[in-house]
Amino acid sequence: MSPSNLAIPTDRYKFFSLIGYVIFVDATSRHFKCVTRAITGGRFVFLSLRQVKKQMEFVAFGIVSASLGGMLFFGAIIAPLLFSRLSEADSGGFVRAMFPRYYLVFGIASLAAAIFTALDGAVVSAIILFLIFLGFAIARQILMPAINRARDNGDEIRFELLHKGSVYLNAVQLVGFIATLFMIAR
């Protein structure tokens, strides 16, 4: 897509693209105009920067609320059901297979939300979401393998300590998601 395809005078508008949006800078009045086809069925629509920020905010809100809901659902429904219905060996095997995916999915979601909130200009929310992402990365790459090694080696004291650490980290991440949800919503 180029400015000539949109019949926009190139002597007046400078053109560049940013995450699916085409942004035109009016060289004469120093105003920005954005055009997108994302939600218009293929038609080009000019948006103000305020409208673009609202879309970024909406996407971030959706990602954070879905992540929060997924984490709460797992902790409140799946985990208790898993350990009450399956044997210790079966539930342990399931947890070992599931948690790396859990950390990966919610890590990617929190990083995406951090990017969208940063683009929206919500710096505090972006920092919190990036820290949540780091927590998921550390849990997946360092904490989970250490928990598995402690369990495999029969070191119950180390296992309990590491497991409690992962539970506390998850709780802090939940609080972080709740805080950013309120910050985005206001």
What does this molecule look like?
With 186 residues, the chain is an alpha+beta fold. It has helices spanning 49-85, 88-120, 123-152, 156-185; strands at 13-18, 21-26, 32-36, 45-47. A four-stranded antiparallel sheet has the order 1-2-3-4. Helix 1 packs antiparallel against helix 2 and helix 2 runs antiparallel to helix 3 (123-152). The longest helix has 37 residues, at 49-85. The radius of gyration is 22 Å and the shape is elongated. The protein starts with 12 loop residues before the first strand and ends with a helix. Mean pLDDT is 80; it is low at 1-42.
- SSE order: EEEEHHHH
Number of helices: 4
**Alpha-carbon distance between the termini?**
36 Å
Unreliable runs, pLDDT <50, ≥5 residues? 1-42
Q: Care to count the β-strands?
A: 4
Rg (C-alpha, Å): 22 Å
Spatial order of strands in the largest sheet: 1-2-3-4
Largest sheet: 4 strands, antiparallel
% residues in beta strands: 5-15%
Helix share, percent: 55-70%
Mean pLDDT: 80
Shape: elongated
Q: Class by helix and strand content?
A: alpha+beta
